[in-house]
Amino acid sequence: MNVQSSSLLQFTRRERALSYVLLAAAVVCIVGPFAWIFLTSLKQQIAIYTGAWSFVPTWSNYSDVLFGRRSDFAANVINSTIVASISTLLVLMIGTLAAYSLYRFRWAHWMVTALLGWMLIFHMIPVLTLVGPWYIAFRELGWYDTLGALVVTHVTLNLPITVWLMMAFFREIPPELQEAAQVDGCPPVTAFVTIALPLAAPGLIAAGILDFILSWNEFSIALNLTSRDTATVPVAIARFAQQYETQHGQMAAASVIATLPALLLMALGQRFIVRGLTAGAVK
């Protein structure tokens, strides 16, 4: 018995040590690139070219990005904030109502399956295959090079994941709560607003954070549908790589600044996002 316990204890220690090693490797792979970018943002251009490990830190790259004469990065941040905020609000409104309708109302099973399947397939389609048709459509409508065009495309892209997430949260709400409210004379709309929506608030937070981050980081559509004045943050970062010169320090500084909103949102809503992504996995 003692031999078996000793062997089991050694096996457990090996598993724990292996898990620590794998966890440390994952942390290095995730944090390492960001740490490298941050250090690069503090270097002068000559130190970047020479690859020097010892250097005098400087904040000049950040000042060039935010206040430089040739930089429109501050305006690009405003563009991204407007597009991400408006598209997130629209996606939450449409996606929440759609998810509630699909879950609560008596739709035919094949219709619900077909709609959800199509939305999932559409979400898996490469975005670059949609850029051409969207470019032609917005040019004909006079929407090319406008923030409204980006809002429409981001709503279209982020709507499927929002519907799926919100349906998972609505499934966790006992239908008896709303049925009891309706028996007492509460209209369906009022029952949705006062009962279902507050109980699904964690889902709204999780979906909202994911939608905002996806919209904030979107690059390929913004690159093809915007110009210098309407460019978003990812496009602005890419433009620091010019034809005859790549401004590595400014590009790294802009990347660090662009990462801060996503890090803040993930830190504030991490538990809601984890719950949203795992909703329905365990019964």
Please give a structural write-up.
- With 283 residues, the chain is mostly helical.
- It folds into 2 domains: 2-41; 70-278, MetI-like fold (Orthogonal Bundle).
- It is built from 13 helices and no strands.
- It has helices spanning 2-41, 45-50, 60-67, 73-104, 109-124, 128-141, 147-171, 175-183, 188-199, 201-217, 220-225, 233-238, 248-278.
- Helix 3 packs across helix 13, helix 7 packs antiparallel against helix 10 and helix 8 (175-183) runs antiparallel to helix 9 (188-199).
Key features of this structure:
single chain; 0% strand; MetI-like fold; 78% helix; globular; mainly alpha; 13 helices; 2 domains; 283 residues
